[in-house]
Amino acid sequence: MGGGDKCLRKLGGKPILARIIERLGPQVTDIIINANGDPSRFAAFGLPIVSDNVAGHQGPLAGVHAALQWVKANRPGVDLVVTVATDTPFFPVDLVDRFINSRGDTSSFRVAQSAGGTHPVIGLWPVELAEALEHSLSRGERKVTAWTRDHGADPVFFSSIDVGGRSIDPFFNINAPEDLAAAVALLSEPTQ
User: How far apart, in whole angstroms, are the C-alpha atoms of residue 78 and residue 98?
Assistant: First the structure.
């Protein structure tokens, strides 16, 4: 995307992150933003900015760990954390309910799955996983897919959704300028 925070790129006149917050807000009690570097770039959103607790900017697993640690410290009694990638502006408006109400084994650990594959950054994480995740990060583990699989995450399947009259993967993500252009086109087309 040419550098910078892609979640601050405009999609339909507002930052992608604003769209994420609008979709997630009704589904949860609190939202935090995991970001490293100068937190002032997210000040306009009025949300807590939580940086990684482990050195080396180890990617999404470190972000999940930071969220779990923040919840442990600031929301005693909360057992589950939902994570959403900030480049997936069309994720389901019932994501959290579907995670919580899905049938799985005895674990409450869930990750999103669609026809496009597994999306382990989008998940429902038991706070109790914080210690195991910290241990893995200290050993250099960075692969979210492997970590979620190895720690018993149950995939929850989400069907395609209709946006702008087109059927798309609900976890369509914006990784390149052409993805952003496609998302803009989806928003500008009339909904059926």
Answer: 18
